[in-house]
Amino acid sequence: MMANYKIADISFAAWGRKEIELAENEMPGLMTLRKKYGPTKPLMGVPKSLGVLVISFLHKIMPQLPLQIPDGKPLNMILDDGSELTRMVHEKYPELLKDIKGISEETTTGAYQLYKMFKEGKLKITAISVNDSVTKSKFDNLYGCRESLIDGIKRATDVHIAGKLAVVAGYGDVGKGCSAALRGIGARVVVTEIDPINALQAAVEGYKVTTMEEICAQADIFVTTTANRDIIMGKHFEQMKDDVIVCNIGHFDVEIDVNWLKQNAVSHVNIRPQVDRYTLKNGRRIIILAEGRLVNLGCATGHPSFVMSNSFTNQALAQIALWTDNASYPLGIHMLPKKLDEEVAAAHLEQLGVKLTKLTPIQAKYIGVNVDGPFKPDHYRY
Question: Does 175 count as an annotated binding residue?
């Protein structure tokens, strides 16, 4: 009988199983969902056309949930982020809309695309912006990048970071994590920003805030985090010091103008995979990591499993909510209820040895919640 799978090298299976077992130990949120939802199988009957990343992931990490994995042409959608998924569903596979109850999006840029489509009236299916969940945006984007940025730079270059001047372009959640990581390892950190609130946050955290034009000739390491385009361009490269390290951890590869380097450098040497050294006409050299793509994925292995457990648990809960309680989510963009956000956080506490203080009835009444209800009023922003 012909096997119903195609694998390039089955000899990696045993190694992969060991990796999954390690990941399971570091993903208490998903393991909690396995115990809670495994017996009831809430995603039973999900149509094959529901090509969402979380389904593929859950099938691997939560085998107790017998999910239908997409096949044929919709399989390509599993490989893309949610914003690409949304575009493909609308433009390439409109016939799938009849089977899909909703989609979830967990990237900042993907969520932006969802809101843009909704504003223009082009959103035809219900969506949950997982990225708006506190346990996603404030964990994956901030704490994940805080760990994986340095991992990527170190694996790629083995450079000594302490004492060097590092520029972080953008002080959103990703920029906050990157700035903290660089300062924590001893770098002197400068931030560039367009938003006055973020700029003020960076300033009162003790970072110097200035423009790329003012700082590009002085720094040793550059990290872009904005998810916007044209952050570091040719005019900046021409002023940079010799052998500066330039990398991106924003979602798209348009922040650093690598094409300018390819067209204007007098020579290019590939030092090792994902590490390229361009020599400019002025004799100074620029080291580009991961060709301007995500440095933590191109030069390392991305975020640790623990922080991704928060994101994937959010994704799983969003998919379960859309599939089992679709009536509560009419056409539009929704956030996961705060109660589910807290459920995600609570699922990770035991792993860290955390014990929560319980409200007394008087305390609960004083802040207007039930003893077993949300710790803070719903409007509270963490």
Answer: yes
